[in-house]
From TrEMBL:
This is SalK. It comes from the Bacteria. InterPro entries: HTH_67 (IPR054058). Pfam families: HTH_67 (PF21863).
Length: 288
């Protein structure tokens, strides 16, 4: 389908789908499944769960594809995590955790609803237009089979759409000249990114790394003395998202305006229900 989409319609759809996908990484169900495989460290669990589609990779591959993680953190866990469990075992555990998490957050009625089946069909249709070249995380996940149950198929499709956009976003970050910590700090300065304590706790950076990135952004005139984005900083972040939109337009153009609007509506409904059920930490987002 080629009917013209409203401005930023693809981004709005992504913003409705991506957080529910991401809820897995805050889920006690994922911890439980991976602990049963022998994992003890939560960082190792998160790294294994997201990188498993790539195979038994090491720290270098994950540093390149995740972009904003400290290589020192990655090297503490990779490739050693694959001695605890194989990528195939982690992927199976991940899907079991998705099943339990979505049933817990959304309820059995929503999981079995016609709306869930419709959302899965729309998201999978959008993903038909995703492209593999220069998109390692998308391409690796695209090699995985589509689960039969609609709620699992929906999560799988949101994974494809998330990683497709994410892979493109890395190209935009490189083009903008933002290193991993600068990318994180400038996003946090918008008020929409993770709070610094969450960034430092999950990405493996030190407070001095964060302060150094903020200082470099200030020297470039992108962040003000109070930590807020300057006019130039806000313009850069806006162009980053527009650049990403251009690189990520194909799935939503393929789905068409009506399909994107409906998928966004359905995705928001599931997301709001999950958030109300406690899917995310209360202090996850913000500048504090």
């Amino acid at each position: 389908m080629t009917n013209t989409l409203p401005p930023r319609a693809g981004r709005r759809c992504h913003n409705a789908l991506n957080p529910l996908h991401s809820s897995l990484y805050f889920s006690p169900d994922l911890d439980r499944e991976l602990s049963a495989l022998g994992f003890e460290d939560q960082s190792a669990m998160r790294l294994a769960a997201r990188s498993a589609p790539l195979g038994a990779v090491g720290a270098g591959t994950v540093a390149a594809t995740f972009y904003n993680y400290n290589h020192e953190l990655l090297a503490r866990h990779l490739p050693a995590v694959w001695e605890t469990a194989s990528p195939a075992e982690v992927l199976a555990a991940r899907l079991r955790a998705v099943d339990t998490t979505l049933r817990r957050l959304l309820g059995e009625d929503a999981v079995a609803s016609p709306e869930m089946a419709e959302a899965a069909e729309l998201a999978l249709r959008a993903a038909e237009a995703c492209t593999r070249h220069a998109r390692p995380l998308y391409s690796a996940n695209a090699d995985l089979p589509v689960p039969e149950e609609p709620h699992l198929a929906y999560w799988h499709a949101t994974t494809l759409l998330r990683e497709h956009r994410g892979d493109g976003h890395l190209a935009a970050l490189l083009s903008a000249g933002l290193d991993p910590v600068e990318a994180l700090a400038s996003h946090t300065a918008t008020g929409k990114g993770m709070a610094p304590r969450w960034v430092l706790g999950t990405r493996g950076w030190r407070r001095t790394d964060w302060e150094g990135a903020v200082a470099r952004l200030r020297d470039r005139g992108l962040i003000g003395a109070g930590g807020e984005l300057t006019e130039a900083g806000a313009a850069l972040r806006a162009e980053l998202e527009e650049h990403t939109d251009r690189l990520d337009s194909a799935p939503y153009e393929h789905l068409g305006a009506a399909g994107v609007e409906r998928l966004t509506e359905l995705g928001r409904g599931f997301l709001f229900a999950a958030a109300a059920a406690g899917a995310f930490p209360e202090d996850l987002v913000g500048k504090g």
